[in-house]
């Protein structure tokens, strides 16, 4: 947590072609401000090993510049049997790897958890998510593209859920890292 | 390719709990020798971000020490709907990432391609693979555990197929890297 008591969360919407990344500061009263938003893009014509290295370089620069307290990554499901699912899983592994290498706790959230946290509705569409993210962060325009908005929504979701949701390894709150537990405790106090 | 004309291949059988890694030198006449074999292990109780960082550290040490020419990784399929498939995909992404970061070409091979290349039989069982790997590399004992044998088999498969199989990005031989093409040409000459 920063000296101001806010939590800096880095959210990643993993993908090979477009990997959304967003950083927000979230105060104990749940108000949030934008720190960074962007998309790391790679060309489908590049070899996979070069695409993953480019994604790692792009994400690493954001980690190094913005020094988040915690990392939130969208959870990828095997049953999404799209041709891109393996690449998405590999990109999510890169984001989680970097969290580990920077010594940060990481958590994963499902798309419906993110939508529910941000819009109150687990089946919200992309425009609803973008609209709520823009409103919460007091942005003049909708965050574009959707991958960028999703990364910000993931970060907000993680902070608002008090770090009490499933860590990336699927463990319960009893096994939260000290930083996650501190925030969970802080978030509970803030809600009283 | 080394000055001796042999190709040094690093094979990775990706996994979170046991990630097999093997390095072999393969001469133009297809004879092969063992350079390194090992398994990077992580505890299921560790957070995923720490497991992936440990796998990256373990693999990076092998890349740095043995300086392969090319990296071969077992291809992971989404339709293998086991609970571990996402972790396996993430570990494979780490191996491919490191190839990219070391400036090396990478390729993926399916388990049946590997079994066919090493034993002549695409449905060979683990013992048959271990036995053939031990025979080819003139080992006194079967490589243990099976993940280590599979990593060696992957490396042999890659060299024997002449680097002409599918690169990790799924592209055809027309888009092989210069190093892959040089080896493919060399392998074809060797087979005449």
Structure description:
Chain A starts with 6 loop residues before the first strand and ends with a helix. With 192 residues, chain A is an alpha/beta fold. In chain A, helix 3 (111-119) crosses helix 5 (146-160). Chain A has helices spanning 48-66, 85-101, 111-119, 126-136, 146-160, 178-191, and strands at residues 7-13, 18-26, 32-41, 70-74, 106-109. Chain A is globular. Chain A contains six helices and five strands; from the N terminus they run βββαβαβαααα. The model of chain A is unreliable at 170-177 and 186-192 (pLDDT under 50). In chain A, 52% of the residues are buried. Chain A has a single domain (7-191), classed as 2-Layer Sandwich (Nucleotidyltransferase, domain 5). In chain A, helix 2 links the parallel strand 4 (70-74) and strand 5. The first copy, chain A, has a five-stranded mixed beta sheet, with helices on both faces. In chain A, 44% of the residues lie in helices and 18% in strands. At the A-B interface, helix 1 and helix 2 of A face helix 1 and helix 2 of B.
Report the mean per-residue pLDDT of chain A as an integer: 86
What multimeric state do the chains show? Answer: homodimer
- Strand order, main sheet of chain A: write it out: 3-2-1-4-5
Radius of gyration of chain A: 15 Å
Strand runs of chain A, count:
5
Present the secondary structure layout.
2 copies of one chain form a homodimer.
Chain A (H helix, E strand, L loop, with lengths): L6 E7 L4 E9 L5 E10 L6 H19 L3 E5 L10 H17 L4 E4 L1 H9 L6 H11 L9 H15 L17 H14 L1
Parallel strand pairs in A: 1-4, 4-5
Antiparallel strand pairs in A: 1-2, 2-3
Helix pairs in contact in A: 1-2, 3-5, 4-5
């Amino acid at each position: 947590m920063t000296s101001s008591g806010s939590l800096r969360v880095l959210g990643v919407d993993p993908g090979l072609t477009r990997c959304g990344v967003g950083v927000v500061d979230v105060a104990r009263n749940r108000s949030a401000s934008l720190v960074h938003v962007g998309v790391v893009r790679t060309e489908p014509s590049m070899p996979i090993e070069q695409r993953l290295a480019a994604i790692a370089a792009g994400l690493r620069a954001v980690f190094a510049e913005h020094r988040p307290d915690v990392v939130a990554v969208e959870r990828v499901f095997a049953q999404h049997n799209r041709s891109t699912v393996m690449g998405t899983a590999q990109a999510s592994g890169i984001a989680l790897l970097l969290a580990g290498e920077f010594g940060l706790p990481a958590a994963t959230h499902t798309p419906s958890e993110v939508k529910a946290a941000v819009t109150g509705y687990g089946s919200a569409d992309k425009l609803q998510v973008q609209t709520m993210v823009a409103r919460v962060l007091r942005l003049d325009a909708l965050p574009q593209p959707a991958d960028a908005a999703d990364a910000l929504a993931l970060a907000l979701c993680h902070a608002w859920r008090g770090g009490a949701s499933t860590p990336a390894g699927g463990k319960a709150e009893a096994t939260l890292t000290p930083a996650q537990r501190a925030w969970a405790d802080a978030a509970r106090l803030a809600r009283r």
